[in-house]
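Bench notes, afternoon.
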Amino acid sequence: MAIPTNSEVFSFCGSSPDIITNKGTAVTTEISNQVSIVETVLGRKISATAFSNVLFQNGLNCTIVSNKIFLDGIYRDTYSISSIYEEGTLLTAVADYDDTGDYFFDSSLGILIRKDEYWSSDSFAIKISGSCGIGGASGPT
């Protein structure tokens, strides 16, 4: 899903240069307002959005079931993880079965799978940084 720019809107409407000059800021503001409304109604981010050191625990931004974290809300659309800390320890990603590491991230399902152990059930034990948005890495910015 692409979010149009004001140039694309003016081009689509066949606007003259004087209208583009006079209304450019207003159209840009209106596009931002509409994106904000849609994101609020959906409870998800349309545009790519970076997040840093967000706390996750069962019922807060996720649901934890044994060795799986099911991401919730805007974080369901996470497409990239730059770091995960659990109880202050930096975890590493696993690419396949025989890799050493701590977790596997299935971005298509919004699930983090802990390798060989369960996720901590302690309050405020998990901090994640990354990027989310319905469009993903190749989506709108």
